[in-house]
From TrEMBL:
Source species, domain of life: Bacteria
One Pfam family this sequence matches: Glyco_hydro_32N
Name assigned to this protein: Beta-fructofuranosidase
PANTHER family: BETA-FRUCTOFURANOSIDASE, INSOLUBLE ISOENZYME CWINV1-RELATED (PTHR31953)
Species for this entry: Agromyces flavus
E.C. number: 3.2.1.26
Length: 336
């Protein structure tokens, strides 16, 4: 588990150099007292481990750039890949002072060793107004364009980026979509139409991750209960970590079929393979049963396919979260 005495930690992502796991995470000082203030103070921290359990904090990876820059207020969630030239690329979210923290853009930092990172202070990927909601549209408190998940395109050509985004059309509480962009070289990016449809029941799909777990593709995302669609909230659904089974990773994602993997005591589920090749999920501890904020990252939790659904081992998950039971095909769940 990663718990820092001086800082809260929340959203996170991994890189694996073959020797050590590198954990990058959002952090903000506990001296803020109110955890709701953390978002505008966020920087990207860094810790290393050989077993995903014991972590050693090292120097922070990225802090906000000097103004003016797309990330001169705070630096948010991202992902890391290794380019064909051997350098590491971290694609991350930035918010700026000019936009009062409400306009999100994607930038990149580079590193030769995962320890020292260089940024440009320049937005690399921005939403295309033909398909994606803008702040001026007034449908949401901010302009959602964040949490880039970058991976080699399953087609075998180039790289794909999945993003937390919102469509320009549809009932405002259900406009959450999977945004996407494509690149041949990780430098120039082409924004493309959403990879999912509106009306799937989510205001936004946070911290996406697409992986092939034991031969089956799955898409993970997180959504709080307060950000579910009006219909889902009226039906009594709750938020947490969600999964979508994927038959074809190149096809649109069927977000309406999402089912919950864990409740809101955990958030931002991330899949990672341990040194034995077994798939694990880690998450950040979001709240206690009474709703108090926590802000630390769990130990690995084994996952497996059970009755066609990605499932966290109950004996481990139960230490942190009430297991989800009784999920319907539409994703409606009843807490045990």
């Amino acid at each position: 588990m990663l718990r820092l005495a001086a800082s809260w930690v929340w959203d996170f992502w991994f890189a694996d150099d073959g020797d050590r796991f590198h954990l990058f995470f959002l952090k903000a000082s506990r001296a803020l007292h109110d955890p709701d203030r953390r978002h505008w103070r966020a920087t990207i921290g860094h810790a290393v481990s050989t077993d995903l359990v014991e972590w050693t904090e090292v120097a922070d990876a990225i802090v906000p750039s000097d103004a003016p820059a797309f990330d001169d207020l705070a630096t948010w969630t991202g992902s890391v890949v290794r380019a064909d030239d051997g350098t590491w690329r971290m694609f991350y979210t930035g918010v700026d002072r000019a936009g009062s923290g409400l306009v999100q853009r994607i930038g990149v930092a580079t590193s030769d060793d995962l320890m020292t990172w260089s940024t440009t202070g320049r937005a690399l990927v921005e939403p295309d107004a033909r398909w994606y909601e803008q702040l001026a549209d007034g449908g949401w408190p901010d302009e959602a364009w964040r949490d880039p998940w970058v991976f080699r395109d399953p087609s075998g050509e180039g790289w794909r980026m999945l993003l937390t985004a919102r469509a320009k059309v549809g009932e405002p509480s259900s406009r959450g979509v999977v945004g996407t962009a494509w690149s041949a070289d990780l430098v120039e990016w082409r924004v493309e139409p959403p990879r999912s449809t509106v009306g799937s029941g989510f205001g936004q799909l946070e911290v996406l991750q697409l992986e092939q777990v034991d031969g089956r593709w799955v898409l993970l995302f997180s959504c709080l209960g307060s950000e579910l669609s009006a219909d889902r909230q009226a039906a009594g659904e709750r938020g947490g970590i969600w999964a979508v089974n994927v038959d074809d990773p190149a096809a649109p994602f069927d977000i309406a079929s999402a089912y919950r993997v864990a409740d809101e005591q955990l958030y931002v589920g991330r899949l990672v393979r341990d040194r034995a090749g077994r798939w694990q999920m880690m998450a950040f501890r979001n709240t206690t049963p009474d709703g108090s904020w926590v802000g630390e990252i769990t130990d690995p939790m084994p996952v497996a396919w059970v009755d066609g659904r990605l499932t966290v081992a109950a004996d481990v998950a139960g230490r942190f979260v009430t297991p989800v039971a009784g999920a319907s095909p539409a994703g409606v769940t009843a807490d045990a």
